[in-house]
Amino acid sequence: MTEAARQLLREDEQQIQALLAALRHGGRFVILVADETTWPEAKKLLEHELCPPPLHEVPLATGEEVMRMFASPEATRAGTLVLHVGSDAAAAIAALNLHRDKLRKQRGRFVLRLDGPHVHRQFAHEAPDGYSFRDALAIVDGRAAVEVVRRVPARVSQIQEALKEEKGDAEQLLQLATELFKLAHLGEARRALDRGIALLRAKKHLSPEDLVVLAMSLHLSATFLTPEEQPRRLRDALHVLEPVRDRVEDIYGTILGDLRDGRNSDIDAVREALALAVEYRDDTPQAQRQRLNLAFTLWYREDIQGASAELAQVASRPWASTVNRFRGRLLEAEILLSKGHWTESEQHLRAMLIASAADDLKDVTSMLMLRLASLTFWRGELEQALETLSPSFISDVDPLRMRIRCSRGDAEAIASLMEPLGPWHHAPSHEHERNRIRAKIDAIRAAVEAGLLDGRRGEQLDAELEALAAQVSEVAPEDPPWSRIHAALLFADDFLGRSGAEDRARAEAEGALTLARRGAPELIPPCVHRLGVAALRLGTVDELPSLFEEALSAAEERHLPGDAARIRGLDLWRIIQVGGDVASAERALDASIARTGSVLVEAEVLSRTGRGTGRRDLLERSRRIYRALPWPEREGLCLEAMGMKTHALKRYEAAGLRLAALALERRTAPPPVDACFTPLPSGASL
């Protein structure tokens, strides 16, 4: 084998190693995409890692062959069975989809080998349930992706030299920025765009060609803004392009499509953006980017099944650019995380980290380090999380590092909590500053409860929050009202974290709901969620049915299945409290959870509802999920609510969560039910 061939297989081997890890950690059904040219080498690696016993391969083309396979001795004994599905096997695909449960009930493990990208696309389309049922996916395509990695640093150096020499050609700056963007050198791309935009803005008269370049530069620069800031930049681009719109209808349509995309639009508009991309600009990079936008939007809305289906369509074709490749693989890791496959998600992230370092992609590398650190922190691997963060330089690191250090009881970190919170930054671009404030509030409350901070720090915090509320009321804009709503929900969450402050939490949530009704309907469900928790804790539930109906309608209209599941959980709590049709409420809750496809949403909703109602069966279901991930901090809350305080303490101590352990020892009753949920990272920003 030549050196080039060995380089070529390196990425393929990483994919197979992730698949093997899933099998070693209890996975029963994995998918391997490999045609006749790549299967022999892949098979050798599988046999080497999995033997004994040897692999047994079964070709499947019809439904009868699938049923015979399930009844065969090979399927009923320990071992690994390779199910080979080639082209012209629609009947076998349908049978595997229908009988997917059998794949987990047999003693053996199953590797479904799909014969190349075409069969992969067919299986994902015709067997979506079976496809999402997998524990892992590996695509062994034999493409020379590593050759691209080799060329990237050299090409980036050439572009950097060209940027130094370029003085006044905005079109050339746009071309160089576009290439840097595709190579995922995002910081340099943004600076080149800013230079070109400034050059054109300074000109007194713009030719039609200048207008097109300016609009395209504004369009690409919107990628680097927050979701709240992007619409204004895109409208600016459309305004610039209006005088020459009839000449460049394709570009106008593309920008219009992106304007209708984003987390604050309804899902139909996001799908329309994809249709516009295909209609006006039917080239692979643009259509692929829009489909990734749609997949990320579905994931952000916690529609994991929908995101998986969209990503499968994208991943079945070659990546059109480096940034698309990283975005797609990041989303695959996030979907695995949402489905509870944390080990496999971590392996995906680490493989991406190696590739981004090889490409010298500092922006991507930092973001991946942050995500890995979050995951390892949740798993209770605090030292590893801190080691992962140490070389990173992005601003979001500081809140996470503080949380980790405080969680393990670090004296220096606890002492830093005596410093004031600082001002509220209402600009969307300062989201990381608001995250820092939220993390610090939580850490102060936890440290006071654990006895590591003087109780007077909690009183000082109350005064600081009052000052923050006054500042937000004075300076935060009402249109759009997002910053005011986020601030009100922050205060509501803090009040819900304490017993006896339900009235104040409800007042904050009601104020946020009023603003959401005026100009941010996508935030109606989280506002009602806080209101509902406060009302249920107080036992004042008369207004809740109409509020829940409003929130469910908003969640349906804005395609927010995760929020819908949270509201259904509160409705079950209400019905148990007032004595209604519990069975119907349970069915509605189970259906809403299933619609998300996320075990994280499932565990969160079951935990909150179980803690609120005292239902031990719901708490046990949630605890089992957190145990399997593992997420010791969340599992400990379930154990404490179930009256198993000693077991909770052992989980905290084993994970090094000293702050949680000390607080647990001092508590005489479980903490009050809150409205906090699993945070989602902004992976779509890549």
From TrEMBL:
This is MalT-like TPR region domain-containing protein.
